[in-house]
Amino acid sequence: MLIDSFTVIAQIINFLILIYLLKRFLFNRIIKIMDDREMQITGQMQDAETAKEEAQKELEEQ
């Protein structure tokens, strides 16, 4: 079995180009979407905690 060095080098170069393109065009968008979603979930959790505390106060007053 003969391994062609040109093919190996071409594969490495193609892989590096793919990594660069994914990072340049896709990675930042995905990170932004994930950060936005995390902020949304955090806000919803805080709202739920506030509603729970208000409900608990209402129960204690009765």
pLDDT averaged over residues: 95
The end-to-end distance, rounded to whole angstroms, is 83 Å
The residue fraction in helices comes out at: over 70%
Which regions contain 5 or more consecutive residues with pLDDT less than 50? none
Rg (C-alpha, Å)? 26 Å
Helix-and-strand structural type: mainly alpha
Order of H and E elements: H
Report the major sheet: none
Choose one word for the global shape.
Answer: rod-shaped
Membrane topology: Single-pass membrane protein
Family: Belongs to the ATPase B chain family.
Pfam families: ATP-synt_B
GO molecular function: proton-transporting ATPase activity, rotational mechanism
Task: Describe the 3D structure.
The protein has 62 residues and is an all-alpha fold. It has a domain at 28-62. It has one helix and no strands. It has one helix at residues 5-61. The mean pLDDT is 95. Pfam families: ATP-synt_B. Its main location: membrane. Keywords: CF(0), Hydrogen ion transport, Ion transport, Membrane, Transmembrane, Transmembrane helix, Transport.
Question: What are the main properties of this structure?
Answer:
62 residues, mainly alpha, 1 helix, 92% helix, 0% strand, CF(0), ion transport
SSE arrangement:
Elements: H1 5-61
Quick overview:
The protein is mainly alpha-helical and 62 residues long. Helices cover 92% and strands 0% of the residues.
